[in-house]
Structures are given as structure tokens and as C-alpha cells.
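no rush on this but wanted to send it before i forget. what follows is a protein written twice so to speak, once as letters and once as C-alpha cells for the fold. mainly i need to know what kind of three dimensional shape the backbone takes. thanks a lot i owe you, the record is right below.
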Amino acid sequence: MATEGRSWRIAVRRVHLWLGLSLGLLFVLLGLTGSALVFYVGIDEALHPAARSAVQTPGPGWTSPVWDRALATARLRGFDPAGKWSFEVTGEGGAVPARYYPPSPNGGHPAPRQMVWFSVDGGTILRVAPWGGYLMSWVYELHMELLAGDTGLQIVGWSGVALLVLLVTGVIAWWPRGSWAKALAFKRDAAPIRRLRDWHKLVGVWSAGLLIVLVATGVILALPVVKAALLAPDAVPDARSRSAMGARISVTRALGAARDALPDATLAFVDVPGTIDAPYRVRVQVPGDPHRRFPGSYVFVDQHDARVLAIHDIRRGNMGTTINAWVRPLHDGSVGGWPVRILAVLIGFTPAILFVTGLFHWQRRRAVRVSPVRRR
């Protein structure tokens, strides 16, 4: 029985070793880029001070004319009216960030989106940059999809499943059979190879729980098929404007209808349609939703007559919808404020520490094993 237990533990350690050697560098890359992205908005503003949001003026909200004025400004600057706009409501003064999605040429592959920053009054465009064409968006694309589009997204997602196995096998291989105090000890006077092992062991043990949460939530974000299988959240409606006749209503009027539908919600995004049958899509944070920037509730408003077409309120959803609302804030560290975000940054460095200590320990062990042969 003891021999079987030893053989089983050896097999687990081998799985852990070879997963670490094969996926370690990817784990390091995802960890370091993830750390940078925890504060990516602030870093980007520091690199581009003209579009900073730290201005002592109230940010535009439900009734602000800024949204319609920004659309008029964009059209004067030559942006195609058939393109779709998504305005972010930061709740702060200063630049108003927006995403512009150009119309697809001849119904083909979607054109790359543009990031546009408007002045606080919507009358001036402060900055325009293609998504992926400036540093922090490039880091975001590298983290999410390895700069390889949908293929990269699949690689990141399924590699994340393997990384979960790596983390779990590491915990199993370490799990003490005797004294917990000994298993958690760091022997300062031990040989270098033992100190490497202790560093790897202790960093892994103390960070394993948080790393598992970060990797698991990353898998769910990257792989919709996994999210559907595990959580089965309620689908967001695919609403369409009922009438194709008449002029488009103003953004302010559409926001008024959305606020009447969910009066206790906080405005997060307003998507202005490009095609004639698309509705306004108003993204809001309802009480109980943990993510301020990317909440999970929506109100769809007909672009021609301001009728509310559909409401997706996560408070009325199933258990999977509730759990899904926590996936992104747990992954990006936005839940819990600054202390959690700083912790998320630090945790992002642990894959690099684990990879370096594990690699050096493995190399030293190999050197010890082959050195007697060399002496012969």
C-alpha cells in the first residue's frame, strides 16, 4: 500500500513538472500582463495626459447633452454615421472615452474599432487611437488572446485549464503526510537546492488559492463554451428596433426611457446603433452587481420611438447569472477596492517566481544526478 501511494505521488509530481516546464513561460506572461492591466486605465492616462479624467467637474450622466454633442462632433470630424458608438460613463469629470465600430465593408469582416476620447463637453476630440495600436490596449490583447485573435483566445482558454491542473497537482504533491509545521518551514541554513525547493513550495502554497481563482475566472472569460457548460447564465436578449421608419431619437431621450425602466440603476455604457434596425443598448449597474465598469444588466430601447424592447436584469436571473456577474471582478481585482487590486498585482508576479524557482530546482537536481556519471 505504501508503494502504491508513493508511485501515485511520483506520478502527480511528474505531471506537475512537465506542465510547469511546458506552460511555465505562458503562465509568466499571463501573470505579468495581468498585473499591468489591473491599473491599465490609470497607466494609459499617465501616458496620455491630454485625455486624463481627473478634472474637478461632474461627469455626464442620464440627462446630459454631452452624448448627442459628441456624436455631432464625430460626424463633423468625418466618422461614418453608419458606424456604432459605445460611450463609457466613468462617473468622473474630464475626458469622455468612447469606442467607435466602423461599418463592415460590404458585410465582410468587421473593421478594427477605434478608441476616441472627447472633451468633457463633447465638443472636441482629444485623442483617437486604434484598439491594439497603443501600449495598454496592446498589453490587453496580448493577455487575452496572445495577439492572435480568436485562435489566441482559444489557446489562452484551454491552456488555462491545463494551468489549473498544474496548480492542483502542485498542491497535491506538496500536501504533508506528517507535520504541517515542517511542511511550511523555510530552512535558511539548508543547501541551495533545498532553499530553492522551499521558496517554490511556500510561494506556491500561499498563492495557490488566489491563483486558482484568477485562472478559473480567466478560463470562463476566454471560453464561452465552458461558461455555458458550468454556469448556464441567462442569455442577453438580441433585441431589434420594431420600426424601420422615422428619424432616430436623441441619446438623451433613449437614456430617459432606460432610466424609467430601471430607476435604481447606475449608468455605465450607452451604445448608439449604426444600423437602422439596431436598438440603443444601455448598460447599467443594478444594486448587488459587483462590477462598476462592466456590469451585467442592460436595457434595450427602440431607436425610433423610445419604446423599451427588452430588459436584462441580473437580479432576475438564475444562479448562473449571479455567479457570472462575479467572474470579471474576481479576475481583474476590481472587487474590494484598492487593497484587492494591489493584491491582484502582487499575485500576478507569483507565476514568474514559481517558474524561476521550479526551473532552477529541476536543473540542480539534474546536475546532481548526472555529476557522478561525468566523474567516471
User: Anything to note?
Assistant: The chain has eleven helices and eight strands.
